[in-house]
Amino acid sequence: MTAEEVRLFDWEYRASLEEFVMSDHPHVVRGLSNNMTTFLSADGTADAASALRTLQSNFVTFGIQEEFDESLRYMRQSWPRLGPYRLQSASENRSQIEIGDVTTTALRRIEQLNSVDIEFYDAARSLFHSRNARLRAA
Fold first, then answer.
1. Which tens digit of pLDDT belongs to each residue from 67-107?
2. Half-sphere exposure of residue 18, counting CA atoms within 13 Å on the CB side?
3. Quick one: which of 63, 35, 68, 33 has its CA closest to 51?
4. Model confidence pLDDT, tens digit, residues 46-74
5. CB atoms within 10 A of CB 47
6. Three-state secondary structure along the chain?
7. Residue in 63, 81, 126, 80 with CA at minimum distance from that of residue 72
8. Diameter of the chain measured on Cα atoms
9. Which pLDDT score, from 0 to 100, does residue 89 have?
10. pTM over 0.70
């Protein structure tokens, strides 16, 4: 790591959530911006339509974190040999940050940096419900 990368790493470790989210450092902004669509789009850019096409064509199933139990039921219907969920609640990766602990300013900044991901998430959630309904009807 360069000296600048070490300084940035140290700052990121010490920064509050508000300081981190409000940073204009290119590395921080890039790390906070539209990661779902960037990872799933065909060309590695934040393209919601491309990410949705990837999700539709390359994923037999996928889950929605906020609908965890329904996602597990959906996956079990798709893959009957899938075993039971055995992870104890204490071992689950759960954030300690409550939404009420985040300022309105920080929330707006997160929404701004993730506007394409939010658009993609809404479309993915609709696809999840559509696929899940078809599977239940079959």
1. 888 898 888 888 888 888 888 877 777 777 666 678 999 99
2. 6
3. 35
4. 999 999 999 999 998 899 988 888 898 88
5. 19
6. CCHHHHHHHHHHHHCCHHHHHHCCCHHHHHHHCCHHHHHHCCCCCCCHHHHHHHHHHHCCCCCCHHHHHHHHHHHHHHCCCCCCCCCCHHHCCCCCCCHHHCCHHHHHHHHHHCHHHHHHHHHHHHHHHHHHHHHHHC
7. 63
8. 59
9. 78
10. yes
> How far does CA 77 lie from the centroid of its chain?
23
- Do 48 and 37 contact (CB within 8 A), yes or no? yes
Could you tell me the two tokens for 74? Answer: 């959906």
**Residue 15 CB neighbours (<10 A):** 14
Degrees to nearest 5, angle at CA 39 with 135 and 75: 20
The tokens for 26 are 């290119």
Structure tokens at 127: 């696809």
